[in-house]
Amino acid sequence: MVDSAPDSVRVAHHAAVAELLREPPGSATDRGATTFHVTVRGSCMEPALLDGQRVQVRRSRWALPGDVVAFERGADDPRLAVHRLLGARPSRTGWVYITQADNDQAPDPPFVARRLLGVAEVPVSLGRRARSLARLLPALARPLRARLGRARRSSLHVSPSAQR
């Protein structure tokens, strides 16, 4: 998906390629088990995860960069997603996780740690972990650049009384 695509196209793309189905009521996800299964929908994580592949997820509240994690998208979107964890950073509300689909050009919006459901039980190579950390650096720099840009713009706006 290209970054210049309209938001509606990006939303539709993610709905089509990253949707995961919860197990039926009464399954392991509803009984507080230590693992549960999800079915991958879409190609955003290929070749690591294939469309239609059933993945076992181990419940966890923490993960390492490079792990494939299952998380709740948010209050506005009840679906689950399974993407690769790039890392975490502190925010005003606590720690947030940064993820990205393997076949996407940009990271997902950060999400609060309580939305992390677990880690998919798929092998992760050391090289994949290193690539995830390399993708994290630009994702961390983006909000800093935005803050610096706002600070720079506000310092350029000097009131007439301050010019005397």
Q: In what order do the strands lie side by side in the largest sheet?
A: 1-2-3-8-4-5-6-7
Mean pLDDT: 80
CATH class identity: Mainly Beta
Could you list the spans in which at least 5 consecutive residues all have pLDDT below 50?
Answer: 12-31
Beta strand % = 25-35%
Secondary-structure-based class equals alpha+beta
CATH superfamily: Umud Fragment, subunit A
Query: What is the H-and-E element order?
Result: HEEEEEEEEH
Question: What this model shows, in words?
Answer:
The chain is globular and about 55 Å long. It has 164 residues and is an alpha+beta fold. It contains 2 helices and 8 strands, in the order αββββββββα. Strand 4 and strand 5 (77-91) form a beta hairpin. It has an 8-stranded antiparallel sheet. The protein has one domain (7-146): Umud Fragment, subunit A. The relative contact order is 0.15. 26% of the residues lie in helices and 30% in strands.
